[in-house]
Amino acid sequence: MDRTLVADDMRAVGGEREFEFGRVAQGALIAAGIAACLNLVVYFAARAAGVTFTGRFYPTAPQTVVALTDVLGASTVWVVPAAAGLLLLNRFMERPAKAFAIGAVTFGLLSVAGPLTFPEASMGTKLALAVMHLVLTAAIVGAIAIRGRTPRPRP
């Protein structure tokens, strides 16, 4: 059923919620694991292809190297605000899944602009980091939104 986001979705609900805290937390852990694993694959594949992951990531910064720990940290840290955002939407909306997906995908697509604008990074570095942003977005939207849902009895 394809519903548009309407004003009725914004009213606070007192009954059963679309998402459960424990399941959202599980989804966040799953999303972090998926994003970390897939981004490591991207990192090692890019390194094998000759991407150096170095550059000056803003004009006044010294030359920087994106290390393996940076990839792991960035792949996991963003699941916390994403899960918190979903739980906040769940508190005030009857059906927060669509709003969460729209917000998370929008944020993820906008975040791709960051690596693409690094002034002194190679094109390979920019593209690999942009792919990592997309992987993280897909992991967050997929794992948290799917695993976090409250199970409904089948009719």
Alpha plus pi helix count = 6
What characteristic shape results from the CA principal axes?
elongated
Q: What radius of gyration results from the CA coordinates?
A: 18 Å
What fraction of the residues are assigned to beta strands by DSSP? under 5%
Characterization of the model:
The protein is mainly α and 155 residues long. It has one domain. It has six helices and two strands. The chain has helices spanning 21-48, 68-77, 79-92, 97-111, 113-116, 123-147; strands at residues 54-55, 64-65. Helix 1 runs antiparallel to helix 3 (79-92), helix 1 runs antiparallel to helix 6 and helix 3 (79-92) runs antiparallel to helix 4. It is elongated and about 55 Å long.
In a nutshell, what does this entry contain?
By secondary structure, the protein is mainly α. The protein contains six helices and two strands; from the N terminus they run H-E-E-H-H-H-H-H.
What topology does this entry show?
Blueprint: H1 21-48, E1 54-55, E2 64-65, H2 68-77, H3 79-92, H4 97-111, H5 113-116, H6 123-147
Antiparallel strand pairs: 1-2
Helix pairs in contact: 1-2, 1-3, 1-6, 3-4, 4-6
